[in-house]
Queue: 2 jobs
Job 1
Amino acid sequence: MIQQIRYNKNLEWGIYMNINRLKQKQIPQHLAIILDGNGRWAKKRGLPRTAGHYQGAMNVAKIANACDQLGIKYLTVYAFSTENWKRPSDEVDYLMTMPVKEYPKYKDKVLGSNIKIKHVGRKTVLASDVLELINMLEKETNDHTGLTLQIAFDYGSFEEITQAFEKASQMGVKIQNGNDLYPFLYVTTPVDLLIRTSGELRLSNYLLWQASYAEFYFTKVHWPSFNERQLSKAIKTYQKRDRRYGGLNK
Ligand code: IPE
Ligand code: IPE
Ligand code: MG
């Protein structure tokens, strides 16, 4: 019974998850998540893969709110990779049309929050209605001062890094060290903590440059089931890590 009450009070997770205790130690400035396992989550429940994608998208809102409350500055979520075009066309169609279709239902919540939304990734292949939604979201949330939610949609590191070098060279900028490339990347800050859900132990072409000194956290939980409790567990683990950057700590 108590468990049930706690679960239903998810919105007030701070009370149960010790948000203040987490905040006493270093909170990652930039959290990146590989949202994996939507399909497996759905399969386990006898549902179509698309149901997993829908639930996964809803979960982004939940976790973004928790990150905002925690004072995380950037949350970068991997929602569609440059490789995901290889999937069956009905699945790709669903992923490409769902945001535009579902947005009107959630508009008030999104615009009423303090979360700033930014698209990161390739813009040359996405359909015009998706690009319009992105432009609108970026414009309408631009004065929000909380978490910046970066949605990696048609994102791949190889493409990101390649276009960054190309842009730098066109502008006559010589890249001499890792930091010089950041202004030309889509994701312009290094990652502190990278979480991948659903048990796979790989990066799948995500934030290769930015994750150079990131701490990694892998969990078997499928993305739609990843909740505030798991988030706080990942952050607690991060807070115990010793980040040496090649040097020696006292
Ligand atoms: C992640 O879930 C979402 C996308 C890649 C679009 P998956 O669709 O990869 O789910 P699994 O890995 O097949 O379970
Ligand atoms: C990575 O997940 C891409 C996203 C989460 C958007 P995948 O499910 O596509 O990765 P692989 O194919 O297992 O490496
Ligand atoms: Mg997957």
Job 2
Amino acid sequence: MYHTAAKVFVFTSNMSASRVIRCSIIRHYCKRTPIKLRVSEALSGAGLGENIQIQGWVRSVRSQKEHLFLHVNDGSSLQSLQIVSRPDVSVLPTFGSAVEVTGCLQRSPSQRQPVELQADKMCVVGECNPVNFPFKIKERHGIEYVRQFPHLRCRTNVFSSLLRIRSEATAAIHSYFKENGFMQIHTPVITSNDCEGAGELFQVEPSGNVKEENCNFFSVPAYLTVSGQLHLEVMSGAFSRVYTFGPTFRAENSQSRRHLAEFYMVEAEVSFTQCLEDLTKVMEDMFRSVTEHVLVHCAEDVDLFHTYVTPGHQDDVDAMLKKKFSIITYTEAIDILNRSSEKFVFPTKWGCDLQTEHEKYLVKHCGNIPVFVTDYPYDLKPFYARDNQDHPKHTAAAVDLLVPGVGELCGGTLREERLDLLSARLAQNGLENTYNWYLDLRRFGSVPHGGFGMGFERYLQYILGVDNIKDVIPFPRFPHSCLL
Ligand code: 4AD
């Protein structure tokens, strides 16, 4: 398939000493059509003694008098497969180039790898000029440097590990919900509602010629969704457990290390529930189940982060998993802040929103483990939050999960299911006509229900100990930056 553009090398004879003998014996058995294997399969010993073919990108090149050693990686694992070939190839595959190698997979004489591929035939599928390639062989590039190359950073060990972890965590989230009876709903990306009511919306209109004068494409203003919650609530009127997991968008003018304009959110909605504990249980269970899965199934990749990117973080994660998450009310949180000797920049009066500095302090105060903060002032929460009418202070049945190093990881509430209270609150905000359909949900078979959302990138930041959210998403979008 590559033969017109690619360079093909066929090795015939005199490799040296023991390798030659082993190779010729093995070649005898290896005349059949090569089996195409992924690097991870070859490393696990599949195809041992067989004629195999692998395709991937060169991660290291070491030329010795008698042998040329390459390490080839195809993204299937952190480890690369060692290729041993004759040293006198006419074009040396360079660091970063794409190659296809055929030969016999055999046990490696070295302790450093279980197997190696004795190359019979090597084909450079795509050359890579090492002078211009931004990543250099044997150099460990800083995470900020790598971030400048969103189109190439998947070729680095750290970022490819991140992408494998992200993919495995995504699968684990879906498994968790499936195993616990939740149905997945594909909530829309384009919507006419502002669920959070914060006005942080990206409006959607056609560009250029398609645009009609003074007329919205959808006849109403439409936006990229800030949350799938309201659509999940629709579904929770027919399915008692639903979830969604997709991209959400916020036009927040923030350059912080924990905000993105586009991020992935896991959202769940549970019907027939009247207590926040039903929600905190799902949040904690999901968190534990996904984290334990990732730690087992991506052990090498996670270890790379915990060794080179955030040394020592593994101990914090292990310690956290052994403890139950804390739970305090907002009122208790304010008391803790007010009793502390710390000088906070933002006020800590009852009624104030908790700022990052407060969240950090509270998490530390609770022993550096995740902490649920419940029952926030009613006025701080969006229109859908349930009024805790029986509380001495005016609070809503809302809960945030705060975690070390990141702050708010999850936000959830019981939803106001009582038609009269919800109508009154919408009317106060001039929204009763906009949300007539939402009021219908309370008119026809309304049940007490609640749900939450977890920021997926913040989750990855927390378990890996990554400081900047831009380093845990393939293509970060933030103010003044939409590369690629
Ligand atoms: O607290 P939030 O705004 O809650 C909601 O959107 C609810 N409607 C969810 C629900 O109940 N179904 O956002 C939920 C989580 C936050 O706790 C945070 O982890 C993450 O989404 N998040 C962001 N992550 C990255 N960048 C941003 N700009 C984020 N804004 C929120």
